[in-house]
Specification:
Residues 256-619 form the GH15-like domain. The relative contact order is 0.11. The strands form ten sheets. The chain has a nine-stranded antiparallel sheet with strand order 1-7-8-9-12-18-16-15-14, with helices on one face. Strands 2-3-4-5 form a four-stranded antiparallel sheet, with no helix packed on it. The protein is α+β, with helices and mostly antiparallel strands. The model is unreliable at 1-8 and 13-34 (pLDDT under 50). It is globular. It has two domains: 45-243, no CATH class; 248-628, Glycosyltransferase.
Length: 630
C-alpha cells in the first residue's frame, strides 16, 4: 500500500494528481526552477492550534491560511489563485530535485525535507504553537517555520507574498532590526525572524549556513529571543500533542490512520467558542468544472455531531465539552422556534453568500464563494443532531461538567422543535436549493431526538418525561418505516412516498431506528450497491440536483456503506472497501470531501471533517479486538 497514515513519509507529488501522489510516493520529478509554482493539489499537510490553521504543500509552501481565525481573510491564497498571482509563504530551494514530507509522530508538527540536484538538503518544520501555559491553553494567532541545513550548502529563497482583502490589497510593509510588519486596514501581521531581512524582503537566494526561524502572527513583540522562542514552542507543542494522543483509546488495527484523523478533527475545533468547522477551505469544487464550489469554513451542527461522536469513541471527551458550550449558546440563541443548520464560528447567524471574481479558483475552476446560503435553509435534521451531540454528557461521569436536569429541560425545547417539524418538507441534509421534500433522513433525526431524550429522562429518573418522549419516538419510528418504504423497488427511499435512493438512509441502522438484520434494510443496501456505487466508492443519491447528477463519490457515504456492511455481517467486504479508502488518502493521511472513482483523485473542500470521521468510525468498527493479541 502507498504512504498511508499521518506519520509515513511521502515524496513530492509536484504537479501530479493527488491519486498519483498517494499511489507513487517515491516518484521524484525532474528538477524545476524554484520560482515555478506547482499546480494546485490537495496533497497538502495541515497544521493548526484550534485558533488558526495553514495548509502546506509538498515543497514546504504555505498555500492557504486564514487569519485571525478559520473563517477569516486568506492571507495566503495560492490554493485558489494559481500561478504567480497567488499569495504564499515559500522557502524555495534553488535547483530543486525532490522532497519528502511527514508529521512528527503523533503530533500536528509537519516536517518537509527538500533536496537539490547536487544533493544539498534542507529541512523545514511547520507548526502552530499549542500547549498549556499559566493554567490555560496557549494557542496564539501564529505560524512558526523553522528551516535548517541537513547536508551540503543548500541555497534558499524566501518568498513571503502576503495579501489582504481576498487577494485585492498589498499590505504596507514596515521593518525593524529583526521583524517585518505587514500592515492592512483590518489586520496587521508581524514576522519575527533571525534570517537576513534584506534577503527576506528582496527574495534574493542565499546559502543556508545555519538554522533560521520565522514566526508570523499577531503584531506583538516576543518576550525572548527568536531562536529560543521557536525551539521552546516546538518542544512544547510536540509534547502537548503526544500527551493528547496518549489518552486516546485506539483500536488495535489502523492506529496511525486513526491518530492522524483524530488530530485533524481536533485542529478543526475553534476552541474559543467550541465551534467545529466542516473544512478549512472554500470553493474547492466537488468535481472538475462543476460549479459545485462552496464555503465550508463554518460550523454545521450535523457535521459537528459526527466529529464529536467519532472522538468520543476514542475516549477524547475534551472536544465534546468544548462543543457543549457551543451547543448551549445555539439553544439559547434560538429565534422564533428555528435553529439554522450552520452558523459562523462566532455564532454569526447571517452568512451571506458572495463571489470573489478577482480569484481564479482552484486550478482556475471558479467561482470562489464566501459565505454560505445554506444558513438560510430549513433542514429539519438539525434538531436531532443537537440532541445526539449532547446526549453523552448526561451519561458520562468523566466530564468536568456533566449535564443534569437544567440542561435536559433546555434540550427538551429542541426536542419539541423536532416534533413540530417532523413530517414537513425541507431542503434535506444535502442542502438542495430548488426542491423540498419530506426527507427520510430529516424524519429519522427527529425520531433520534425523541429517542435520546427518552433515554436521558430515564437516566435522570424522570419517568413521566421518558414516557412522553418514548411515545413520540415510537409513533415516528412506525411512520418512517412505513412511509419511506417503496414497495415497487423494495427499498427505503430518500423521502416519504419517494422513489429514488439516497445514501443517507443508511443512517437508519447507525442511529438505531432499525435492526440492520431487517430484510428491508439489507435489500436497501443491496440496491444502493447496484445503483450508487462505483467499485468501492459511493455517490450520495440517484436523482439529479440543482447542478445535474454528481460526478464524484462522497466519502462519508462510502464510510456509511462500510458501517452498514459490517453491521449486516459482511465484514470482509467492508474491510476491503476501507483499505481502498485508506489508499486514496493523500500522502499525509488526509481526505477531502469527494473522490473521483476512475482516477482516485480528491475533490471538494479539504480536509473534510466528515471524511476523517469515517476513517475513525470504520477502524473502530472493523478492527480486531485488543484481547486477540494481549
Amino acid at each position: 500500500m502507498s504512504a498511508r497514515a499521518g506519520d509515513a513519509r511521502a515524496s513530492d507529488p509536484a504537479a501530479a494528481s493527488d491519486a498519483q501522489a498517494s499511489m507513487q510516493p517515491q516518484t521524484q520529478p525532474q528538477a524545476q526552477s524554484a520560482r515555478t509554482p506547482a499546480v494546485p493539489s490537495l496533497a497538502l499537510g495541515m497544521i493548526g492550534n484550534c485558533t488558526i490553521s495553514a495548509l502546506v504543500d509538498a515543497r514546504a509552501g504555505i498555500v492557504w491560511s486564514c487569519m485571525p481565525r478559520f473563517d477569516g481573510d486568506p492571507v495566503f491564497n495560492a490554493l485558489i489563485q494559481p500561478g504567480e498571482q497567488g499569495s504564499r509563504f515559500a522557502l524555495e530551494l534553488e535547483d530543486f530535485a525532490h522532497s519528502e514530507q511527514w508529521y512528527e509522530p503523533n503530533t500536528a508538527v509537519l516536517r518537509t525535507r527538500l533536496t537539490d540536484t547536487a544533493g544539498n538538503c534542507l529541512e523545514v518544520t511547520d507548526f502552530a504553537p499549542r500547549f498549556f501555559s499559566r493554567s490555560r491553553a496557549f494557542r496564539p494567532v501564529m505560524l512558526v517555520r523553522r528551516v535548517r541545513p541537513v547536508r551540503g550548502a543548500p541555497r534558499v529563497r524566501v518568498r513571503l507574498n502576503l495579501r489582504y482583502d481576498w487577494g485585492q490589497t498589498q499590505p504596507t510593509i514596515t521593518r525593524g532590526s529583526n521583524h517585518v510588519r505587514y500592515v492592512g486596514s483590518a489586520l496587521t501581521l508581524r514576522l519575527n525572524t533571525d534570517a537576513p531581512l534584506t534577503y527576506v524582503l528582496s527574495g534574493q537566494p542565499f546559502v543556508l549556513a545555519r538554522e533560521h526561524n520565522f514566526l508570523l502572527g499577531d503584531d506583538e513583540s516576543l518576550q525572548a529571543g527568536i531562536g529560543d522562542t521557536a525551539r521552546l514552542w516546538e518542544q512544547e507543542t510536540i509534547a502537548y500533542w503526544k500527551l493528547w494522543n496518549r489518552s486516546l483509546a485506539l483500536p488495535l488495527q489502523w492506529q496511525e490512520a486513526v491518530i492522524r484523523a483524530a488530530i485533524t478533527l481536533k485542529m478543526s475545533l475553534f476552541e474559543d467558542t467550541g465551534a467545529i468547522v466542516a473544512a478549512m477551505t472554500t470553493s474547492i469544487p466537488e468535481s472538475a468544472h462543476s460549479g459545485r464550489n462552496w464555503d465550508y469554513r463554518y460550523c454545521w451542527l450535523r457535521d459537528a455531531f459526527f466529529v464529536v461522536r467519532a472522538l468520543n469513541s476514542l475516549s477524547e471527551v475534551g472536544t465534546l465539552e468544548d462543543y457543549l458550550r457551543w451547543l448551549g449558546n445555539i439553544v439559547a440563541e434560538t429565534r422564533a422556534g428555528h435553529i439554522q443548520p450552520l452558523y459562523g464560528i462566532g455564532l454569526e447567524h447571517e452568512l451571506p453568500e458572495s463571489i470573489q471574481p478577482q480569484l481564479a479558483g482552484y486550478r482556475g475552476m471558479g467561482p470562489v464563494r464566501v459565505g454560505n446560503q445554506a444558513a438560510e435553509h430549513f433542514q429539519h435534521d438539525v434538531y436531532g443532531n443537537i440532541v445526539l451531540g449532547a446526549a453523552q454528557a448526561f451519561h458520562d461521569r468523566r466530564l468536568l461538567h456533566p449535564a443534569g436536569l437544567a440542561q435536559f429541560e433546555r434540550l427538551e425545547q429542541v426536542g419539541e422543535l423536532a416534533v413540530q417539524v417532523y413530517g414537513k418538507p425541507d431542503a434535506g441534509m444535502w442542502e438542495l436549493r430548488t426542491r423540498a421534500r419530506i426527507h427520510t433522513s430529516s424524519a429519522l433525526m427527529s425520531w433520534a431526538a425523541c429517542d435520546r431524550l427518552a433515554k436521558i429522562a430515564q437516566t435522570l429518573q424522570q419517568p413521566q418525561r421518558a414516557h412522553y418522549w418514548r411515545q413520540h419516538a415510537q409513533a415516528m419510528q412506525a411512520e418512517i418505516l412505513e412511509r419511506s418504504w417503496n414497495s415497487e423497488r423494495q427499498v427505503f427511499a430518500e423521502s416519504f412516498g419517494g422513489h429514488e435512493l439516497d445514501a443517507s438512509v443508511l443512517l437508519m441502522a447507525e442511529v438505531g431506528l432499525i435492526n440492520p438484520a431487517d430484510p428491508r434494510f439489507v435489500r436497501t443496501l443491496d440496491a444502493m450497491e447496484q445503483s450508487l456505487c462505483d467499485g468501492p466508492y459511493m455517490r450520495r443519491y440517484e436523482a439529479a440536483d440543482d447542478f445535474g447528477k454528481p460526478e464524484t463519490s462522497f466519502n462519508i457515504c462510502t464510510f456509511w456503506r462500510i458501517d452498514a456492511l459490517a453491521r449486516t455481517g459482511r465484514r470482509e467486504q467492508a474491510r476491503e472497501i476501507f483499505e481502498a479508502m485508506l489508499a486514496v488518502r493523500n500522502p499525509l493521511g488526509l481526505l477531502s470531501e469527494d473522490t473521483h472513482a476512475a482516477t482516485g483523485e480528491m475533490w471538494g473542500n479539504f480536509p473534510q471533517t466528515y471524511s476523517m470521521v469515517g476513517v475513525i468510525n470504520a477502524a473502530m468498527r472493523l478492527s480486531a479486538p485488543w484481547d486477540s493479541v494481549i
